[in-house]
Amino acid sequence: MATLMARTILHLDMDAFYTSVEQRDHPEYQGKPVVVGADPRGGGGRGVVAAASYEARGFGLHSAMPIGRAYRLCPQAVYLRGDMKKYGEVSRRIMAILKDCTDLVEQISIDEAFLDVTGSLRLSGSGRELAAELKKRIRAQERLNASIGIAPNKFLAKIASDLEKPDGLVEVMPGQEEAFLSDLLVERLWGVGPRTAEELHKLGIYKIRDIARLSPAELAERFGKHGHQLHRLARGIDERLVAPEHEWKSLGQETTFERDSDDAGQTRRTLLGLAEAVARRLRDQNLLAGTVTLKVRDEDFVTATRSLTLPDPTDDADEIFATVLRLLDRLKARDRQDRQDRKVRLLGVYASRLQDALTAPRQLRLFHPDEKKRQLNASLDAIHERFGGQGMQRASLLGRGQTGTADDGTD
DNA sequence: TCTGGGGTCCTAGGACCC
DNA sequence: TCTGGGGTCCTAGGACCC
């Protein structure tokens, strides 16, 4: 008989991850406000703050803040573009420490993970002892601080990890769930962003305990499926399991121009570059895209998407690019008068309905040079692997004023 | 103060089939 | 000779998370 056993879940969250890595590697940055994100360009840059050190937060800076505003608030900060490759490597080493503790590790972002340590407790003492040990090992090995929350479920563990940042360690004991949540703001709930918070505020609901004032039916009527979830979370109920295996649903790449553009050539070159990057990532992970999506955001920040499901899933850049061009035509055909002449701010290419390339049924196409193409793609991938992005590019990508991607060199 | 880039999930409407 | 209802797939958009 299955028993409803209480679980012990840990949520680990690295403190100001990117900027902490930079401060660790550059002693001259220690004690100073540091920002990783877009290039501020003396206040005129485009983009947002990806991470702000605690010193920078003292000036009111936080992640997702427009970089120009950050610069005006704190021009003396050290502004860095960041090194995602390095952060990824640090992340892998930290995750390895976690996996040393239990197999049940679910990584949810570069610097966050859930652990189900229920099965490890007999051997390793209490959840608190285990969490303290993990923090100690991460500090010893990486010279970085983590905050950890311990609770009977994922949602509470996540909130707990955030409560005493940085270097926090907070435990929610079974039975204390509702008391723990009662005084917190609704914005803390998973799935409550600016829109839902505003809706709740209109109803006079600001704290999590206020949600109990509404019946589940009322919540469901106002917020749909989401409302049901809100009611459960507000009572501290969350039955989601820690899921180590993650199946990708979609992947894609997008880029914002440094300046809005009405240059059709630039649009084409950028889309080709994005199609190639997406195709390469598909091949890299042995995936095929069933659906291709084009995303276009114009100078007024109005975003449109068009997507097309292919008769035969693909990992080939030419096919993806050709599909994207068809979608671009479809987009141009819509509401001709009012948006047609808008400049382009952002372009994106996405692949979804992903299938495993090794097991997906490939359509038999006798006259299609599929095999030849696969070999060509494999050689291109090998060159890319060896020489990086600069190894080989299509001639059409080498035009002037090319893609304006955010990962251009820093100088 | 203008708003990145990587994703997930949900909703609603239309096409199409039975 | 006008029309039901269910099911599935596809598409577009939006809220949300880190």
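The longest strand of chain A covers residues 344-356.
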